[in-house]
Queue: 2 jobs
Job 1
Amino acid sequence: MILQKGITGKTQNSNDLPKPDGKDFKRLCYTLIAQLGGSVKAFTQPQIDTNYFHVDLEVFNKRLHLLLNENYPYLAVASEVDFFNITFIDVPILTKQFAPYYTILLKAELNERIQLRSGRKKGALLNENELIQEELADLVYWQPETVGHVLFNHWD
């Protein structure tokens, strides 16, 4: 996966990015999850230290989490969301409901390893990317292990 400019939540000009509408996402979550017999337990918008919308839900007798990047229409499902750990999973029966509206990211894509060249900020990231310098510096500082931890992060 190409890590696009602004995907980390840091950007010089966010007007250039295909930001998803939070109100539309919230409405879709309540509607589509109810159609599956589930319920939304909490809906959290991006904060100063998070770059994603977080929906805590109960469906199929499981507690799950939907994550939507704040700058790109990238949606992921997780079984666990903690400050330094997000466990990504695939739940096709859930994500197919959202596929007409968002790009669904699979566990395999999200668990792709981040490859950093030590001792450098510029050119430190070996994964294919279009990130700006500030984002690259954050990667060197925060040392994320996977693509998913770049797309859905708790960096300030």
Job 2
Amino acid sequence: MNNVFRKSLVALAIMGTSAGAMAADIATGTVTRNVSTEYLEVAPAGVLTSNNVVLELGAEYAVNDVITLTFSGNDALDVASLPPFVTVAAAPPLKGITVGLISTSVTAGTTRANYRVTDITGGASDTTTGVSLDFGALDFDSTKSGNGISVTFSAVTNTNLALDTGGGALRTQELFAIEDQFEVTVDTALDAVVDVEAEREFFTGPATADSLVFTSAETAVFDLFADVDGINYSIAGNFAWVQDTDANTAGVQPTAGTFTITPTGAAVCGAPTVTATALSFSCDVLDQITVDIDTAPQGSDAVLPATTFGIDANVEYSVGASASDKDLDRVAAGAWTLNGSETFIPYMPYSRDDMSNISQIIYVTNSGSQSGEISIDVTSADGTVTNFTNADLGGILAAPGVTKLTGAIVDALAAEGLLTGGSATKQFALNIVVNDANDVISVYSAYNVNGSDRGWVQNDSVVVNRVKNP
């Protein structure tokens, strides 16, 4: 009796091991098709055809068991593309099996196809575990497939008990993976440091050049994709330092050699155009691009700003005669920083030079032990920028302690004629640069009208951790 019991336990253990070794698998044999969002946007409305849907059974099936394939999507499946029968011939040790489509249904955009086992063939010792059912390629409405399509397997016995429940993630497979087709990545960011000691006319080193390297590419290998017709780049940043060599031609005409665009591969790129806020150019195909910026060709009298850079890209694409374009998300492309302190005062009013009702209160506090030269960039109401060097400001220094800037600024504005004529009140924005460590300099800014109305003006000298120019 005990021997029989032990044999029964061994048999159960063997059965359990066999069942655990196999599991339902629709993922391995079904290959995902990668489709780009841009393809779906411009491709003529029609059919997306999947790769073959292949299900490997992981249990023993019997006649009248039911296999269900569940398809995600907004009722995208063309049920007419489902095969009415799938038959696999017996090939010992695997049994033969035939399944037939008995019904389809759609609930909340999800389509279910139910197949009943109609026939089992093969020897008594053969099994359906490991049999692969090939449902062939299926058709889907391309206009309803924008979120991708997946298929999931389930089964029940002829007595409605769950069947073939193993497999985990292998029970589901993407038929169509939908992704954005294009991206821009930065390989080498702009990172020059503007030298305050060199009147901000050079980078530290000294140097005059900096380079940006970035790559536009497809995000994956796509089975269905849009063709690239061109790509337009715009590098955002402060380019107000670029001098115009031809006042009679619209736009800014930079000195030759200031900007050089070099594709790594086969791209052909046009000449760049520049404004105060962007450097723009176009290429015919995706590629790695090097943008060399050299301030030397235009001379050393331009003041280089601290600025951040970003790459904006617009891709033009098509499928056949249908075309469109897309703006990609801006990608950070580095920054030019200062080896000193920079404080921006966004607004400061001044009286015309024949009036005196407005006065300013501008002080620099230096908590360090060294004196630093001061220079100022003044932006007028019309956007014109005037750079005042330390000499223009009378050689004033931010000595340890507190230094009053008010008079030096007024004198420089008057000498430049910025307070002459026009309206009684002049408005300026001031960018105060001190040749000293960023974390020891702070600026106080205020003004009053007729000696009684004191207006404090918030500036950015107090920034958490002084991260503006680390």
